[in-house]
Specification:
The complex is a heterodimer. Chain A is mostly helical. In chain A, about 90% of the residues lie in helices and about 0% in strands. Chain B contains 14 helices and no strands. The termini of chain B are far apart. The chains are: A mainly alpha, B mainly alpha.
């Protein structure tokens, strides 16, 4: 049981990390698009 | 890896810290630092956020190079004291995971660089990563004692990439910064090789002390140091650095030469360590002086 819960803990933290990376990338592309559209770069 | 039954097989104890280790954070910090300087010295303006993304891409590109290097070099890393605790030789990570991680980061960093800044910067970043992997890691490292001389080009390119991110091109100033790091690399790594000589010998890597002996290595260190110090003054001579930089480059250059001459004469391992440590300070101080002057110039 302990083994299984350890596996779930790892999978959850891995999924959270992936979600954070994807949200970070989305935010970055959002800001980049805004900067480019407003002629800031 | 998890299989269908939900049980573990293989090295599935990969921690976040192992992925961080793959990125070679200490090398990355020097890359980021020199790239920021290249970006600051470049004429023209870049939106702060775009500049941030450019530096992030260079950092990720450097990390990707580190991961791909650790994937390819796992066999020799396992033999050497300095590297045997890295994630793959220590058995904490599968080589394929490092390869996938490195390749993904490499492609992502180049793509985002192209989208965020321009394609010259993206192409230079791609060239840097490929040069480090193909020319240095795969081709030269195990074949010639000139490995780090030629391979040093990869480590010298970040300020050029930073410059290109702002200007969309390359000119003489970033090439001078390139030359400083390029000439700095051999004395830096040969000093390290002098006190890890037995490791390199055991792993069969033809580092200079292993191939030509310590005496000739110390002479080559001295020769490169004498070439480096005047080139270190070029940014001031050419007018894109001010008096603070000149003072830093002259003072640190003097200490660098003193350390190199001392190493040549004393033959002590402690002097090799001192030169190695000071070489890091040298590069840091020169690029910091350049960056600080630029920042002060912009604020006034």
């Amino acid at each position: 049981m302990q083994h299984r819960s350890e596996m779930h803990r790892r999978m959850r933290s891995r999924n959270l990390a992936l979600l954070a990376i994807l949200l970070g990338l989305a935010l970055m592309f959002g800001v980049l698009t805004y900067v480019k559209m407003t002629g800031g770069a | 890896m998890d299989d269908a039954s939900g049980s573990f097989s293989g090295p599935d104890v990969v921690e976040v810290s192992d992925f961080v280790a793959l990125l070679k954070p200490r090398v990355m910090s020097l890359v980021v630092f020199t790239a920021i300087t290249g970006l600051l010295v470049a004429p023209g303006t870049i939106h702060p956020f775009v500049g941030f993304v450019a530096i992030l891409c260079i950092a990720i590109g450097a990390g990707a190079s580190g991961a791909l290097n650790m994937w390819f070099d796992a066999d020799i890393d396992a033999v050497m004291r300095r590297t045997r605790e890295r994630p793959i030789p220590a058995g904490r990570m599968d080589g394929g995971v490092a390869l996938g991680f490195g390749a993904t980061l490499a492609v992502a960093s180049v793509t985002i660089m192209g989208l965020a800044t321009n394609y010259v910067a993206a192409a230079l970043l791609a060239f840097t990563i490929l040069f480090y992997l193909l020319v240095y890691t795969i081709w030269l490292k195990r074949r010639t004692p000139e490995n780090i001389v030629i391979g040093g080009a990869a480590g010298a390119l970040p300020p050029v990439v930073g410059w290109a991110a702002v200007t969309g091109g390359v000119s003489i100033e970033p090439l001078v910064l390139f030359a400083i790091i390029f000439l700095w690399t051999p004395p830096h790594f040969w000093a390290l090789a002098l006190f890890y000589e037995s490791d390199y010998e055991k792993a069969g890597i033809p580092m200079l002390p292993v191939v030509v002996g310590e005496k000739k290595t110390r002479l080559r260190i001295l020769a490169y140091s004498f070439a480096l110090v005047p080139v270190g003054l070029l940014p001031w001579v050419m007018g894109f650095a001010g008096p603070l930089y000149a003072l830093a480059a002259a003072t640190c250059g003097g200490v660098f030469l003193y350390r190199a001459v001392r190493l040549y004469r004393t033959t002590l391992e402690a002097d090799a360590r001192r030169l190695f440590s000071f070489s890091i300070i040298y590069l840091f101080v020169l690029f910091a002086a350049l960056a600080v002057e630029q920042l002060i110039g912009r604020l006034i």
